[in-house]
Amino acid sequence: MLYINGEWKESNSGKTLEVINPATSERIQDVAFGGSEETKEAIDAATEAFPTWKKKTGKERGQYLEKVAALLREKTEEIAGVMTSEMGKPIPEAIREIGIAIDYVDWYAEEAKRIYGETLTPSHSDKHLMVLREPVGVTAAITPWNFPIAMITRKLAPALAAGCTVILKPASATPLTAIKVFECFHEAELPKGVVNLVIGSASEIAGEMTSNPDVKKITFTGSTEVGKKLIQDSAAQLKKVSMELGGHAPFIVFEDADLDLAVEGIMLTKFKNCGQTCISTNRIYVAEKIAEQFGQKLAERVSTLSIGNGLEEGIDVGPLIDRKALEKVEEHVQDALSHNGKLLCGGKQVAKEGLKGSFYEPTVIAGANENMKILTEETFGPVAPIIPFVTEEEVIGKVNHKQYGLASYCYTKDLSRAMRVMRELDYGIVGINDPTPVVAQAPFGGMKESGIGREGGKYGLEEYLEEKFVSIQI
Ligand code: NAP
Using one digit for the tens of pLDDT, what is the confidence trace for 121-136? Predict the structure, then answer.
């Protein structure tokens, strides 16, 4: 179902979209599949709702968000089941993601009250100078399937807190989780038109979003390729844009690191969500002296992971999102092996009775080198390549990626070394001995082609605000 102007509706054409469970390859259910017409209806509704929503006090907008957070909390188990069915991550991971999604709603429910302007010291005694912060306006959001709820609330909560009204297009693979979020908006009685959901053709929906002059802001999370296209298409009207795009995170392990901690860090950054995370570890640089020992230790730990349908208990790694993703992982592994990579564990599709989905074995490859695709392209799968290095200077010379600059990780017990390396990392996020450097109050986002703008904390709110300077002659 689509949600436009406070009402659930089918698509105008009657077209539907089949939602598939990647663990079983079976159809879950069909949902309405809209296009440019429905997007225009949603934009019209958001445009009409904007002046009233903008005039509400921050406290009032925050109270709506508090209600949404409470409903998400209440429905966590139900939403987790839906999310796991449509995208595969194990239930405990889905529950954790919903917790993160709620953190953002909680944070911006509070932050809505803290949108401050400024009074500037005038350079002329007969003037009074003020800076007001106002909502950008109608906002169009496009989100991916890998975090089907957190990517929605990380955009919509600050947009709503700032006073913007919104049209969301979720990924076609995960519309059911988005519908659940909108059920919460509906139950929280957000005024008509403040939030709108259009599921359907990406090109038609995005085409209307970028060409309709009523849309003032485009916020996107997804691939760098699509992000660039959205920026180009928005340029004709100079719309504001925020882009959370691809990444290629290095994970550095120095010889003085706590190796157990580093292994567990890789378990989280590489194998959670089956490696389908923008801040996933893509390249593991390990000091040569310990590289062999570390590779063995990691492979042993990785071999304990249980693979299967995330709806079942005790599963650590679910399926990849679809066959195309599976083929890409397979191609990267074969390419690495053909360039002298040494397989320490995994390395093939899972062939188990009863498993019909797109499953790939968690894989560790030693002796990785610059000729491998996996060292530069986003694999988006459960494959961990290890590259040995000798000196700190050498690894610093290698870790920065030409194109991407989203997340990076460094494990060492030497504080001075950690500080030196941190300064050299051209990444928007740096985790020092920390595999989860993501919290609601911190800026999340990338340098270079990993994005424009930040989400989270006060930084995320700024993306939905404009400064208005007022000069009064007194
Ligand atoms: P994607 O193909 O770019 O899709 C993301 C969203 O864009 C989906 O809603 C998709 O709709 C839509 N889309 C596809 N083609 C479009 C077009 N021509 N115009 C407008 N919208 C279009 O990315 P993905 O494969 O779903 O997600 C993986 C990528 O997202 C990775 O590169 C990952 O690193 C990145 N990501 C980044 C962050 C971050 O915060 N930096 C977070 C998560 C993911 P359909 O589903 O209908 O095709």
Answer: 999 999 999 999 999 9
